[in-house]
Design brief:
With 128 residues, this protein is an alpha+beta fold. 16% of the residues lie in helices and 41% in strands.
Length: 128
Amino acid sequence: MKRSLVIAAAILGMVFCWLFLAGCGESRQPYAGNYRSVQPFAGKGHVELELKENGEATWKLAQEGTAIKFKWRVEGDRIWFYTKEGGIILATPSEGGQKLTLDMTGQWNPSCPSEHCLLFERVKGGGT
């Protein structure tokens, strides 16, 4: 009888773990890949944006060569970027993740004001 209780407890534990992991957020896979800004940013050239499936990301100004690392996640119809300093940037994907519009105002506008938006286009998908 003890053995059957241990097996039942193990199965129940695995079910709870699976349910917990399934509810931890939406898949990053559709948005993982490399993106490039359509327009130059702050007069310093184009931005290269790499989104990895593990939630890590890199923001690199093409002319400067310096990279900023941050975390990202998907929630609803937005992508949330978290900087090490505590800043949050919201992106709205479109065209099935082929384009990302980043709201650089820090005020999370429902529609990004054009003078404060940065548009990215996918140059390479995560699985390609």
